[in-house]
Design brief:
Blueprint: E1 12-13, E2 17-21, H1 43-52, E3 65-68, E4 71-77, E5 80-83, E6 92-93, E7 99-100, E8 108-111, E9 117-124, H2 132-135, E10 151-156, E11 171-172, E12 180-189, E13 194-196, E14 199-201, E15 203-207, E16 214-218, E17 224-229, E18 234-244, E19 250-251, E20 256-260, H3 266-272
Antiparallel strand pairs: 1-18, 2-16, 3-4, 3-6, 4-5, 5-9, 6-7, 8-9, 10-12, 10-17, 11-19, 12-15, 13-14, 15-20, 17-18, 18-20
């Protein structure tokens, strides 16, 4: 089992982890400077960053990521929201100001093959004809296994970098909880489960190594990790953000963001969609 030292032998809970976006101007994804937090809240800035980095396909799932209280969730389509189990079900709020209450008793939790509880849950939300969510497409789950070095797009509804001077080292977290984006790359892939409080999840981690990369911060538990699949020419959901190993209150270089792999529960997610396995099934 994977533990993080110095945190009671477990990951610090994401406390609704949010993304800290620290990206500097360059020819890559660095459209966002250390001071340009607003750009990390912009879908148009995201699309331009992807275009400049050579991605032919626009990213179509910005509106799928919303907030659950001071946490994050991902709308998969067909009325279903995926988030971290330690976040749980609640009203899902979208970027257009929409609020979608959870359907009572609709929450589903997941267990690993050994019977331990994974830090993931799925629940239904109430949607009316004409609502934003009713118009959104289904997000495909990744058809590629995680690979070290693969670039991932992280989106979460949490805090950003607080620019005021602080006695804490690194980049102190602010308290402005909004949906933001940032880029990083898979650094570690774990064959043993990652322990987050009472849950154990299989997945991978990114590392905050430079100002060109993003790191999770308060507000982002349940947020999404996407990657681009060149074989399918599409963006896919590759993970759900769970935790970080930094000291609470600030992000520092060397910190990691831990991400669960929901693809391991493809059949369970399909069952949560009312028995529509084709929604999540990999393309032949």
């Amino acid at each position: 089992m994977r533990f993080v030292s110095g945190l009671s032998l477990r990951f610090q809970r994401c406390l609704a982890l949010g993304l800290l976006f620290l990206v500097v101007p360059s020819s890559g994804f660095a459209l966002i400077s250390l001071g340009d937090v607003a750009a990390s809240e912009s879908e148009s800035a995201l699309q331009e960053a992807l275009r400049r980095s050579g991605y032919a396909e626009r990213f179509p799932y910005w509106k799928h990521v919303g907030q659950i209280e001071r946490s994050t969730g991902v709308y998969l389509g067909a009325g279903q929201v995926l988030t971290a189990a330690h976040v749980g079900a609640g009203t899902f709020r979208t970027c257009d100001g929409g609020a979608y209450p959870a359907v009572p008793k609709s929450v589903r939790f997941f267990r690993n093959a050994d019977g331990s509880r994974a830090d993931l849950c799925l629940f239904r939300v109430q949607i009316l004809a004409g609502d934003l969510l009713a118009k959104l497409p289904v997000i495909p789950l990744s058809t590629l296994p995680p690979r070290r070095g693969r670039e991932v797009l992280l989106i979460g509804g949490g805090a950003s970098w607080k620019r005021e001077k602080s006695e804490k080292p690194g980049f102190p977290w602010g308290d402005d909880y909004r949906v933001r984006w940032g880029m990083n790359a898979i650094q570690e892939i774990y064959s043993a489960p990652m322990a987050t409080h009472d849950f154990e999840s299989y997945g991978f981690a990114t590392r905050f190594s430079s100002s060109r990369q993003c790191q999770a911060a308060p507000g982002d538990s349940g947020g999404a990790a996407f990657h681009y699949n060149p074989r399918e020419s599409r963006w896919e959901l590759a993970g759900v953000i769970l935790a970080v190993d930094s000291e609470f209150g600030a992000a520092n270089f060397g910190n990691q963001t831990y991400i669960a792999d929901p693809v391991l529960f493809r059949r369970d997610l399909a069952a949560g969609q009312g028995g529509r396995p084709s929604i999540f099934a990999a393309r032949p």
